[in-house]
Amino acid sequence: LKRIPACTAAVMQLVLPASASGCYLEQRRHLQSWLEHAAIRWSEPWFAAYTAAEYSDEEREVELGIEVDPACLRRPKLPPAPPACGMHNLPEVPMMASVLHLGDVPPVSVYAALYAWIEANGYRACGPARELFLDDAVDQHAACQAVEVQMPVEYLSRRPRSASSGPNESPETQGEPEMQPKMITKPAFMVMGMKY
Of 24, 83, 157, 175, which has the highest C-beta tally within 10 A? Predict the structure, then answer.
């Protein structure tokens, strides 16, 4: 779990077919050209937030964005943003569960593993999932090969204070499981004609 600070982001609202996947390179180039024209500084990585409250087999709502310098909001006049684009202040996320996927499109199994960890550790999802495209700086024209899938979480209920809790430990961090990275290598396999 980690805390994600509040930030200002340039975003593009998209409604795409459910079959659309990947790192949204074409849409990002469109938003990036506006940022360059407006002389707005940004910092990697790009992200996609899936904002729909319910899953749909037909389409999905995506908020594609990148963190920008908040000083740009104080400028007297910015060039007009392209349709469906604008600036948003994203709130702080106190607890964000995440998993790293090596590949351009996280399969359903990555989300399933993240939800399983969340439930097994006494949390519940409390906001839209995000995907951070981590290796974009290497090649802006190739698909991203490292994606961090993030999910905001909250406690299902207050945890009892354990004997090992320190006197200055807040109720929010008492008994919080410690996450340890574990690197594993598995051979590729095929599922429904797709190689994993």
Answer: 24
